[in-house]
Amino acid sequence: MTWPNGNNLVIYNASNNLVENTISYGRSVGRGLLIQANDDTVQAVGNRVLGAMVAATGMNWDGTEHEFGTTRPGLHL
C-alpha cells in the first residue's frame, strides 16, 4: 500500500448495510465515505446512507490543506 492512503468511513464488499447519522470530518487523504465492491466476484448492493455528512476531507481543523509528507509515520525505536 502506498503512502499516503486511507479513507474515513468504508464499507468494502458488503451488502445491505445502513450508515446512519455519521460525520466524517478532515484529514483523510482518500474519501470521506466509500462503499465499494473491489472485485468482480463480490457485491456491494442494497447499502443505505441516511443522515451522513462528509466535510473537509484532506483538511486540517483550521481549514488549511493537510500535508501528509512523503514517508509513513510510525514507531521510531
Describe this structure in words.
- With 77 residues, the chain is mainly β.
- The protein has a domain at 9-55.
- Helix content is 0%, strand content 26%.
- The strands form 3 sheets. It has a two-stranded parallel ribbon with strand order 1-4. Strands 2-5 form a two-stranded parallel sheet. Strands 3-6 form a two-stranded parallel sheet.
- The model has no long low-confidence stretch (mean pLDDT 87).
Secondary-structure map with pairings?
Elements: E1 9-12, E2 18-20, E3 23-25, E4 33-36, E5 48-50, E6 53-55
Parallel strand pairs: 1-4, 2-5, 3-6
Mean pLDDT: 87
Largest sheet: 2 strands, parallel
Helix content: under 10%
Lateral arrangement of strands in the main beta sheet:
1-4
Number of strands: 6
What is the succession of H and E elements?
Answer: EEEEEE
Shape: flat
N- and C-termini, Cα separation = 22 Å
The number of helical segments is 0
Indicate the proportion of strand residues. Answer: 25-35%
What attributes characterize this protein structure?
77 residues; two-stranded parallel sheet; mainly beta; 26% strand
Summarize the structure.
The protein has 77 residues and is mainly beta. It is built from no helices and 6 strands.
